[in-house]
Design goal:
single chain; 77 residues; mainly beta; two-stranded antiparallel sheet; two-stranded parallel sheet
Length: 77
Amino acid sequence: MAAGLDVKKSEVHGMSQRGGVVSSHVKIAPKVYSPVIFRGHADVLMSFEQAEGLRAIDWLKKDGVAIVSRTRLVRQS
């Protein structure tokens, strides 16, 4: 925004309240009309857990960059 670019975001929270996945899209461009990124078009995929990164890999474009935490999260009952 400081560079004069348009920024829009979209988040899905519902499942996080039940221990599920949280998905967020952020688009930065000269003009953004929709915050939703189409599958196969993301420049960057950021994941805080390896399995979730693999589940979301189809959102990443062919020459995109995946940033995935190597920290293993284990849910305890």
